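Async update (no meeting this week)

Hi team, since we skipped the sync, here's where things stand on the single-chain job. The sequence we agreed to prioritize is pasted below, unchanged from the tracker. I ran it this morning and attached the output directly underneath so nobody has to dig for it. Comments welcome in thread, and please keep replies under the output.
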Amino acid sequence: MPAFFSTYFDFPPHLMLISFLSITILGLLGYILYSNFIYKKLLRTLKRGNVFITFFHQEKKVFSYLTKRKEILKFRELSFKTFNEFMNHFEEAEHGGIRFAFQSLKQQKRPISLTLTTKKGHHSYRLNAHAFRGNSKWAVIMLHDTTKQETEKAALRLEAKMISSSIKLYKQAFDHLPWPLWIRENHELLYCNPACSRLFEQRNFKSASYSDTPLTFTTLNRIFLGDNQPKAVVFEGTRHLFHFKEIPFPGRVTLGYGEDLTNLHEKEKLLSQHLFSYREVLESLSAGVAIYDEEQKLSYYNKSYARTFDFDENWLLSAPHLGEVLDNLRSRRLLTEYADYNAYKKEQINLVKNITTPHETLNHLPDGRAMRIIASPHPRGGSFYIFEDLTDRLKLEAKYNTQLAVHRATLDNLFEGVAVFGSDNRLQFSNQAFSDIWNIPKDIMKRGEHISTLAEHVRHLISPTNNWEEYKNRVMGLVNERQQKTRKIHRSDGKIIEFSYIPLPDGSNLMSYHDITNQLKLEEAVAFTVNQ
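Output:
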């Protein structure tokens, strides 16, 4: 042993050798254990991670970690050792591309970058491979599970496709709009539909007042958007009334459009004319008219209404409430007296709120007037009232009915039978003597019965003729000639009836029948006595 060992160590040489060998063996064992720990940790990291790294022997065509070459490699649902086992996990359509890429990697050392799809589950993987420098046998392989990313990409592609379809659909919709529409960002025009292009003539705007003005938004703001008022322009050779507006959106994008108010303006003019005519008609009525809105306030009245109730028109113009109008009429004794006025007032106010069908009443005022009131729902809400003074009309009807009753009583007490037929040959009036002379039941002698029906009931009393219809038509012809006539009718029961026909001025026909049988018999008896 060298003197060095004996100088610094007071041990025999063989013990020193044994100690040195023991320390070396322990160091190697520790290194092996540590390497095995690191190796297993690396495997766990590779298996759990999203990226799998392995090595590929390009001549033997096997995958390995370089240390345990017999181990079958596993990554997600992939389990392989040889190149064929690895390739069989993927779609058959991709096999040709995989072989070509690995052939290029071996021969030309070109890096590989492929996107592969598994047969089961259709998972996506990104394969990257690089050949070792200076060692043509080995290549490093990296597998990246891109299923989630590819799914997200597919979703993004689908969303982009839907957005593109929506944009196309919106563009088609905007293109078919009849009014001008544009989209701009600051002063840059992003979109202009065909109607906008026709109005502005692509780049130059022309109207009745401005010509050859460049289409800039400064000009547009000055001409159209400055005062926010409708503008008259010439569009496709016709004068139109447009209202131009712009709506700002986030991101300095602005939507502008022009609303064509031409038809609306014409309809408003027509409506104004109709309303004016409507008010002119109401003003010309002799009946009073009052219109109340949904809040039961007077919104319109005509002059006749103010005159009928002697209203102060300045007060009516203040749009009084219906309750106030009723109070005013009651205070001036121009409203029908009611035992419970408050209940009547509440009923009238509710009528304005809830009226759905016309409602008519006849009120007798304390001043002796009879007033017909018609309440009806208004198309625009609320209700309108018509006040018609029927005092003179009722007096005239009462006088007429009295005279008619006197005339009827007079005719009913005549010995002559009287019947009046209208121009349509239907019965309008008859007295009792007419029914007695012709023995016609009362249920037949009713107003509106046709003369031919009555003739059928007296057919058995008329002298027999060869043709009854011809006889009846001849009698009807005498009536239609409207010439005054008198004749005698010899009935089958021996009675002789004197018939008189008088046409009346209103087109009616008056027929009177007088039984002169006894008179003629008396005349014959007197003549016989004189001749004796």
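Quick observations from my side:
The radius of gyration is 59 Å.
Residues 13-48 form the longest helix (36 residues).
Reply here if anything looks off.
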